[in-house]
Amino acid sequence: MEPDLVSLAAGADKEQLVAKVRERYGRIAQGEEAGCCGPKGVCGSPEGTIALGLGYQADDLAQVPAEANLGLGCGAPLTFLALRAGETVLDLGSGPGLDALLAARQVGPSGRVIGVDMTPAMVEKARATAASLGLAHVEFRGGRLEALPVDDASVDAVTSNCVINLVPDKRAVFAEAARVLRSGGRLVISDIVLDAPLPPAVEKDLMAYVGCLSGGALREEYFGLVRAAGFDRVEVLRDVDYVAAMQEVAPGDVAAVLERTGAAPAEVAGRVRSITFRAVKP
């Protein structure tokens, strides 16, 4: 492993983190790495198996091409979003387009789906898939979640799947989500939070960061940011031990992080949580 992909110095510049995340997810989009496992082929777990384990239904996955599912999520937020025909929905960090394409089926041609992602290769990939399906009411925009290229009060619902944990400025993301939502709009997000601090070596490991293990904020801090953005009726819908779940579908990835950092399994057990939550903009 190249040193700059492993060592994350304390206090590293936020833009350097963003650049490394964009770099890795660009490689994933281009098929140079697997989504769940770091270097391509390490864990060998099919992306479909991962998605089913996270809560997607086989019938849903059958509606979208395989190239839209790269095994990048940590939940299945659309299961709880209850989209209705004609609504406008925004997907934060839309990646190859899995959730956005599924949302397009739910809101129908009278609705609208906007995906925003900062990785050009992901945006290009998602656009190509949407075009191949003839979904004219879906669009993918390049942009940062901290400064969304979306008009004020223009969407009914916001979703995101294991992306906000990768953004250093989470406060800005939730503020932007509140800005673009109409009054009464809701968000359902799957993400990573921590129930206790991680060992310093894991916290400083860049591959653990871009692989979603160490990018999460502490639970109390995370939901404090959600409420500070103006959301209320915050409700946790799903709460799973993420490391335990990944050990079942991608044991090689977890083992590699532990071996590289020298952390014992007991030091991370139960601390990294995959949550799905709902909140409403008053």
Output the radius of gyration. 18 Å
Q: What is the number of helical segments per DSSP (H or I, 4+ residues)?
A: 13
Shape: globular
Distance between the termini: 47 Å
**SSE pattern:** HEEHHHEHEHEEHEHHEHEHHHE
Integer average pLDDT: 84
Quick description:
This protein has helices at 14-29, 47-54, 58-61, 78-81, 98-107, 120-133, 170-180, 200-203, 206-210, 219-228, 242-249, 251-261, 265-268, and strands at residues 33-34, 38-39, 88-92, 112-117, 138-142, 155-161, 181-194, 217-218, 232-241, 272-280. The chain has 282 residues and is of the alpha/beta class.
Write the layout of secondary structure elements.
Blueprint: H1 14-29, E1 33-34, E2 38-39, H2 47-54, H3 58-61, H4 78-81, E3 88-92, H5 98-107, E4 112-117, H6 120-133, E5 138-142, E6 155-161, H7 170-180, E7 181-194, H8 200-203, H9 206-210, E8 217-218, H10 219-228, E9 232-241, H11 242-249, H12 251-261, H13 265-268, E10 272-280
Parallel strand pairs: 3-4, 3-6, 4-5, 6-7, 7-8
Antiparallel strand pairs: 1-2, 7-10, 9-10
Helix pairs in contact: 1-6, 7-10, 11-12
Could you explain the architecture of this structure?
- The protein is an alpha/beta fold and 282 residues long.
- The protein is 39% helix and 22% strand.
- It is built from 13 helices and ten strands.
- Strands 3, 4, 5, 6, 7, 8, 9 and 10 form an eight-stranded mixed sheet that branches. Strands 1-2 form a two-stranded antiparallel ribbon.
- Helix 7 runs parallel beside helix 10 and helix 11 packs across helix 12.
- The longest helix has 16 residues, at 14-29.
- It is globular.
